[in-house]
Amino acid sequence: MQQKAVAVVFLFVFSSLAGCLGPEDNRAKIDEQTPFGFASPIPDTTFYHFDGARNATDFYEVNGTSVLYGNNIPIFSEGTYYGIGTTTFEPTIGVTQAGNVYMTSWGTGDSGSTAIIKCEGMLEMNTITEYSCADSGPGVVPNSNDPYLYVDLWNDRLMKFDMHALAVMTVQYSDNEAATWSPPTEATSPYAIQDHQTIASSPYQDSLLSIHDTTFVYCVNTQFPHPLCSTSFDGGNLWTPEVPGAPTDCESGGLTGHIIGSNNGNFYRGNRGCNGGEGYSIYRSTDGGMSWTEHPLPTETTGTAETWNFEEAQVAADSEDNVHAMWMGFDNMPYYSYSHDEGGTWSNPIMVAPPGVNGTGFPAIAAGSEGRVVMGYIGTTNGGLTWNGYMTVITDSFNENPLLTTVVVNLPDDPLENDKQDCGYDRCGGFGDFIDIVVGPDGRPWLGLAHNPAGEIGIFGTFAEGPSLRGDTAAALTPLPLGGLGTL
Question: What percent of the chain clears pLDDT 90, i.e. is strictly above it?
Fold first, then answer.
């Protein structure tokens, strides 16, 4: 099997952020009078805040008592990004237990196939020169209009979907970190015109049909008034006929946010409510994608975004099966809510963008241990003249006053878009219809983005330093060297 190397040459020159990171000092406190007394100054691209863009560094006490305790504490944080050295479109990503990070690259693989860019050694990097990426895709199926990558969270299987909207959708998988791939098989038959697919797995087991340790479900937008979904009980070789991804009388529209699986075997996805436009809902399947129930989100006070991606309510499940949702409100700002009962009821929503942001788009959410959540989105502070990549972490979602830690992954003079004022509200370069976010095995969040001024180059946004989203107690991640422009 041929593999095409993608040369990623780094001339790491990163002006104000170059030099020694001093990670141990950064995590230490030098001023015990304030929870934010780190040994290094808080970067201009890092924000500690509460809901509604309320600054937390000066106002973190209620009646003289700090609300920052337990897991709801600040940890020194700084964002950065790493380029994959080639283009992307609607970047989907995955991280394996070995710490390898993957992203799709549209049409740059061998013989015009979809490239699967593999970036190795991410967790062990001491200097940026150790970072390298290469195309590890199978190079068999010609490039599709919508490639999609998913890494099974329970067994590390890499799933690669290629959607040829008018012909066929194929799937291939790898169980050895993309060293070899299965032959392509047809994902579903008969085949309808499709778009905007999404794929996930869960440990759901059907007593008669399951012959693999996880079940895969994908959902797509078609000509129907709701998404259609299909299931594989054998690891991705055979797929069931497509069924409605919502109650059969539901007219939610076919577009859908990313589907996700939970430890208890459930599947969840989000889009418009069944009433055709009032509010967002999370749709849940407890039978491997065969049937779905609707669970409305608390959007009465937030409204819903009336932009091109109005359907994009996103959902995640943490290790204890709590469900977390994110959506854009009528004001084009990001909102968050959680559920302890599989979507039956929801917490009051909070607005999660930091101070200064006045428009957002492309929501994405992922979860780690109980109550640990990360949200990704692009945002603007100047009415759309430039757009940046944001990651907001909550380490204690169920706290009465949850601390939000937000980093911008790019510097102000290095925006991810500078030539499209409505980028967050419309299709935009390499972002396409959506972006993607995951939590790695060490608790580090990774956000798939595009750097449009550089030529729609795929980038991984992350926390170079910050809180881990895995473990019982809030703790700092192992620091990574800063990336940025030099990695494109």
Answer: 70
Give the residue among 363, 353, 343, 320 at the shortest CA–CA distance from 470: 320
In whole angstroms, how far apart are CA 190 and each of 36, 187, 194? 58, 10, 12
Which of the four pLDDT bands, split at 50, 70 and 90, describes residue 31?
Answer: low
Q: How many Å apart are CA 195 and CA 252, to the nearest integer?
A: 16
Kindly state the tokens that stand for 304.
């819903």
CATH number at residue 72: 2.120.10
* Structural domain count of the chain: 1
- Report yes or no on 250 lying in a domain: no
- From its phi and psi, is residue 460 left (phi > 0), alpha (psi between -120 and 50) or beta? beta
Write out pLDDT tens, residues 198-236: 899 999 999 999 999 999 999 987 777 888 899 999 999
Q: What pLDDT, on a 0 to 100 scale, did the predictor assign at position 454?
A: 97
Domain with 165 in it: 15-186+297-487
CB under 8 Å to 263, separation ≥6 — which residues? 202, 203, 317, 319, 320, 321
pTM of the predicted structure, to 2 decimals: 0.92
